[in-house]
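Objective 1b: paired records.
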Amino acid sequence: MKRTRILLADDHPQIRELLRVILEPEFSVVGAAEDGETLLQYAQSLQPDVIISDINMPKVDGLQAARLLKDIAPHTRVIFLTAHAEPSYVAAAVAAGAVGYLIKGTTTDLVGSLRSMIGSLPAQEFAPHIPPAQGRQSTSHAEGRPGR
């Protein structure tokens, strides 16, 4: 069975590393971005199935990145993991195309919550993707690098 390919995006290295450690046994974490600009670059080259992103990030915030992802990685689904609990942020995330929204620190089972969200995504929305040759180079650059 194909493991879901996940790209992480958060400006805090500890959060990226924690997510990588807890998700890697079940999912394939293909990269980790420290800002929205890097997130967009990695998303375009890696074409992950799912992106788990914060909203507040340098260069390009997560909401703007989600809007741009519709063109550069149209089959990728975005789940926000953020500290913003305000309804206006949830609405903005949904408007930007997010399929999930989790508030940091509000769940005792983060992996279970993410697993549930990822598992509920329709399989037909995940189009198979074979990265171009340059994408393969980017993959080796991004994989397993929690600080990137």
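Objective 1b, second protein:
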Amino acid sequence: MKRMGMSKRSGFSLVELMVVLLIMGMAMTAMAPQFAKGWRRSDLEMVCCRMETAVRICRQKAVLQRKPYRLIINTSGKFFYSERRDSAGVWTLDPPETLYVDRGIDFSSTAGGGAGDSEIFFETRGTVAAADAPATVQFWNSRGETLSVNVVRTGRVRVTRKG
């Protein structure tokens, strides 16, 4: 039976909603540094994964197409790309894209080359040229976390973590 002037209450009051939002805001504020740390780490891992993939693809194409390939690494411009040498000796982008390293991540390379560029040269058997092996490309962020992509003479690729 319904009483006059009294209705059933449904939903939440404004005060209850404000209390819940306040608690959620405090929890998010406390967790924000952990989210930022995770994003910086994931950026570092993503760039390292792109380099590892580029090295593997470059090696596989050298073997499959029986043409020399090289991975050009420009640390000052913060980018890398792969090229293949055709029968006339001309280097052509393959695939035709340049991969850039994200802001906040620095890197260095011990691969061969000069004039600001390093290169990892893959012979038609998929091995790395003796002058370029072993090659290491090291990535690091502002938190001191470091990832390295290592390529040995046989073309094997390994990623290592420091820090």
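The mean pLDDT is 85. The radius of gyration is 26 Å.
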